[in-house]
Amino acid sequence: MTMLDQYEEFVGRGEIDELRLLGQQLQGRRVVTVNSTAVGGGVAEILSRLVPLSREVGLDIRWDVIKGGEDFFSVTKRMHNALHGKAETFSAHDYEVFRETTKTNLADMDLDADIVFVHDPQPAGLIEARRADRGRWVWRCHIDVSAPQPDVWDFLAGYVTRYDATVFSAPQFSRNLDLPQVLITPSIDPLSDKNRALTDAEVDHVLDRLKVPRDKPIITQISRFDRLKDPLGVIAAFRLAQRYNDCRLVLAGGSATDDPEGAEVLAAVHEAANDDPDIHVLELPPTANIEINAIQRASTLILQKSLKEGFGLTVSEALWKAKPVIAGAVGGIPLQVTHRYSGILTHTIEGTAFWIKQLLNAPDYARRLGENGREHVRTNFLLTRHLRDYLLLFLFLERSGERIVNLH
Amino acid sequence: MTTIRDRAKRPFHFSSSLDLTLLTNRRARDLAELLEHLRAVPGSVIYYHTHHFLVQHQYLSPEPPNDFAYWVTGVLQEDRLGEQLAAIDLIQFRTIRALRERIIEVIEGHLNERQELRTAPEGEEFHFREAVSFVVPTRHSAHDLTEFADCMEKIGFGSLSFHFFGARLRMEKGEDDFSQWLVTELGEAELAAAIARLDPYTYTLDGLRRAVVRLVRHRLQERAA
After folding, report:
1. Is the C-alpha dihedral spanning A210, A212, A217, A218 positive or negative?
2. In angstroms, how far is the first alpha carbon of chain A from the final one?
3. Does A401 touch chain B (CB under 8 A)?
4. Min CA distance, B218 vs chain A (Å)?
5. What's the mean per-residue pLDDT of chain A?
6. How far is CA A2 from the centre of its chain?
7. How far apart are CA B71 and CA B54, in angstroms?
8. What pTM was computed for the model?
9. Which of A117-121, A224-228, B216-220 has the lowest mean pLDDT?
């Protein structure tokens, strides 16, 4: 069985056939995809699956990673924050570091291809290698640039506007640019440890190991300990619901040892939890994929009460397990949850508490939300849909201007 | 009177439509802005916002209404107008131009009665999007009613929506491809009329598939009798 065939059980034969057919249209195209890290982070995780699948359908694809020193990645980290709207100061030297690292990479990389697909701000400057007579260039932005710090955006726009197209993950993340902007949402991999099916015994084993009893409904939020994920709001909502419904809360996220702000939030979370035996605060290592999977599968309800969010793919992970989700209506979450159809969108602590109670007391409705959510993810947020969008994008680059393209 | 034939000279080749979504740089915070953009956007934008729900949310029954109704109700909380927009009878329109005019007319009617505009909260603006449709062949084709019913049971939702909605409105053929083929190739005027009479917008795509298969299988039983 090929790698692509393994997805047939989730999406059906028809969808796999369509991917192969699109691949035939793009047979032998040389594609280079470039990002800034080979491991760690969502982009590398997705590429590690999409690149072999693209090869399987017929693309001649290479994945390259730019190199940079600590100074470069410190500048791009601050750029990332500033593009998200957090105030940062940049000196002429910072921009020079960016340009110099770009220049070094340009000297080392082979970017001669039919399509050059560049991810995020770090490698955006590679567009300098573009030749007028060949190759199409795409800049894929995985972050929310809806309200960026103007000086940083202006610097980046100097590169971005020279691409043939940009790709954003949510409509509100896009910028007013005079080039085609494509909406391609991220995806989850149903075969990964974080999402694959687990047996009841596996789930029980993990919950036992984490010392979370399964004697009453479990309400869960999986997220790092960050104010924007509002863990204190989650505890407050849980307390309101707990007055009427006997239930447990699991707050699980990455360890905060390297992150002073995270450590502060974690301390505040422990204080708010106040040793309540029904509140479980779990610090998990980055490799705890099966643990997260098991916790989600053991949960009755899953929350993602974010105040600001990138795409919020943890919502799709929860929905894929057919769990009813209550989530903040921010970032990419409304694309994943249609209020009252495939989950619940809330704006306040009180609203979240209200819906926790409602869903705990109306299990049939909660079950329907979860089932609808799973089908929504099956149609829109699995890796195969992501691959299809990329293949369509490549075809679009060759035929832009047409709105109905006949591939017969 | 048309002659009923067992086997078509030209088989029905099932195609499928795969859509890529473009962002248009257009966004509306209130009804006045929504109206302004509705007048100016290409037809592919109107098609996107009245049809993408059918494929992206094909498991829901009944499907949520078009995007305009969903936003007006859910974000602007203009329930009355939202209901009017949701009730626009898409099956009645043979062109996107006519559909666009009706949507505009409904919103104008509402604005004539109420001058005060509600504004969407920040981050919940209406973002106009557009579909680029790639029409691809599938491996399914039918020469007669039995093969047609068998294929209908196997084709994907992209194929079903392409032949039902895309053909009628996006290609402006005025009728769905299935009904047209059943009449011209097999002389099955009554069966075609029965399929054309289905309001496809009130079914899930799977429900629609089952309704068509039921009609075709029923006709096969009639013929056998």
Report:
1. negative
2. 28
3. no
4. 26
5. 94
6. 26
7. 16
8. 0.91
9. A224-228
How many beta-carbon pairs below 8 A join chains A and B? Answer: 112
pLDDT digits (tens, 9 = 90+) for A180-196: 999 999 999 999 999 99
Question: Of A255, A199, A241, which Cα lies nearest the Cα of A207?
Answer: A199
Cα–chain-centroid distance for residue A202? 26
Q: How confident is the model over A43-98, as pLDDT tens digits?
A: 888 999 999 999 999 999 999 999 999 999 999 989 998 998 889 999 999 999 99
Mean pLDDT of chain B: 90
Q: ipTM higher than 0.90? A: no
Read off the pLDDT of residues B10-66 as tens digits, 9 standing for 90 and up: 999 999 999 999 999 899 999 999 999 999 999 999 999 998 887 776 666 555 678
Residues of B in contact with A393 (CB under 8 A): 20
Q: What is the CA radius of gyration of chain B?
A: 20
Task: Give kind and range of the element (H or E) at residue B188.
Answer: none
Please enumerate in sequence order all residues whose Cβ is within 8 A of that of A351, keeping only pairs 6 or more positions apart, or say none.
none
Partner-chain residue, chosen from B25, B74, B159, that has the shortest CB–CB distance to A339 = B74
**What is the DSSP track for A269-317?**
HHHHHTT-TTEEEEEE-TT-HHHHHHHHHH-SEEEE--SS-S--THHHH
Q: Which residue, among A393, A403, A407, would best test binding to B if mutated, counting the most B CBs under 10 Å from its CB? A: A403
Taking only the tens place, the pLDDT of each residue in B147-162 is 999 999 988 888 998 9
Q: Can you tell me the distance from the alpha carbon of A237 to that of A275, in angstroms, rounded to the nearest whole number?
A: 17
Judging contacts by C-beta atoms under 8 Å, the chain A residues touching residue B20 are: 182, 389, 392-393, 396
Is A338 in contact with B57 (Cβ distance < 8 A)? yes
